[in-house]
Amino acid sequence: MDRTHNDSERFIDKQPLKNYWYVVALGNDLGLNPISVKLLNEDFVIWRDSDGDLIAAKEKCPHRQAPLSHGSLENGCLVCPYHGWTFGKSGKCVNIPSSADGVPISSRSHLKTFDVIEKYGLIWLCIGKPDKPLFDLKEESDSSFRRINTEVQKWKVAATRMVDNFLDITHFPYVHSGTFGAGQETKVPNITLEFLDDDFFGYRYEVLAANPEEAKNTSGSDEETVERSMTSGFNLPLTVKSTITYKSGLEHVILLLSTPVDETSSYFTFVIWRNDDFSIPAEEVISFDRAIGEEDRVMLEKLNGVMPLGKTALVNVQSDKATVEWRRQLLNLINE
Ligand code: FES
Ligand SMILES: [Fe+2]
Q: pLDDT of 238-271, one tens digit each?
């Protein structure tokens, strides 16, 4: 069998992928009930204990494998819905209702927990040993910017195909003809790859984008078209950051997050930071970005199976330079 194809087929089983952070939910999704999430083909339960600290464990109860996310929270402890075993801080089993008084709880009854953090309004899970801390975006601590979150969606496409798309600008005039891409120049000038900041590697470019009625809240301009200075870059394995700077000085930063749920389905969410005057309601600002995301989803869900990562597996042109480099680095990472 073609080795490249074989490698990409087993993408989600690659051990090194486990050592990175992935978005699995919004912070606001975790309220009074535990939630179930799936990452790299494994199911997990996440809940907040009485101090608000996050706990993540495998979804199956160690007793008879009941799904723990169907349980309830009592004083921050997770109670299994099947026989009431109760799990507290660090996943420790603190009560087995059927046990006679004084019988000690064996260590095998405790849950093995995983690294889970909350940052940028999102819940990030790492099911291996975190390779590095999650990047710090300067906009998050800059008071001239506001952050806008949106829901976590499930897309029926491999996460690798999403990242490839988010780094690619040549689909704009085609896939995004219903939003900002109408009439956009199809030719892309020579692309130079560089570090855009400490954490993202990619390229800078200028576009003249359509500015239809629905885009005016986002662009802050009434003109028919707007000049955008843009950057697009990646942070391994699967995060993309795109920035748009308008002539007015308005900056619109988009973090595009693709999480491999299994081989061909993914979570998707995006986060916006903007240095506007905060006068336009968040929902109105992001409705245009939502429409753009929807155009990508419709296209991407037509692409079947995993994306081959090998250098010669796909045909590339000059404008694919960034995605080719991202694929090269990703292939190195998963074969570490
Ligand atoms: S399966 Fe969870 S307590 Fe029995
Ligand atoms: Fe797109």
A: 999 999 999 999 999 999 999 999 999 999 999 9
Would the pLDDT of 177 be above 70? yes
For atom 1 of ligand 1, the residue with the nearest CA is: 64
CATH superfamily assigned to domain 19-126:
Rieske [2Fe-2S] iron-sulphur domain (2.102.10.10)
Is the domain covering 144-334 a CATH 3.90.380.10 domain?
yes
107-132 pLDDT per residue, tens: 999 999 999 999 999 999 999 999 88
Q: What average pLDDT is seen over the chain?
A: 93
Three state DSSP letters for the chain:
CCHHHHHHHCHHHCHHHHHCCEEEEEHHHCCCCCEEEEECCEEEEEEECCCCCEEEEECECCCCCCEHHHCEEECCEEECCCCCCEECHHHCEEECCCCCCCCCCCHHHCCCEEEEEEECCEEEEECCCCCCCCCCCHHHHCCCCEEEECCCEEECCCHHHHHHHHCCCCCHHHHCCCCCCCCCCCCCCCCCCEECCCCCEEEEEEEEEECCHHHHHHHCCCCCEEEEEEEEEEECCCEEEEEEEECCCCEEEEEEEEEEEECCEEEEEEEEEECCCCCCCHHHHHHHHHHHHHHHHHHHCCCCCCCCCCCCCCCCCHHHHHHHHHHHHHHHHHCC
Pocket test for ligand 1, best of 63, 72, 86 (most atoms within 8 A of CB): 63
pLDDT greater than 50 at residue 54: yes
Distance 110 CA to ligand 2 centre (A): 44
Q: What is the pTM assigned to this prediction?
A: 0.94
What's the start-to-end Cα distance of the chain, in Å? Answer: 21
- From the CA of 80, the nearest ligand is 1
Q: Which of 102-106, 152-156, 211-215, 313-317 has the lowest mean pLDDT?
A: 211-215
Contact 17, 334 (CB under 8 A): yes
pLDDT at 6 over 60: no
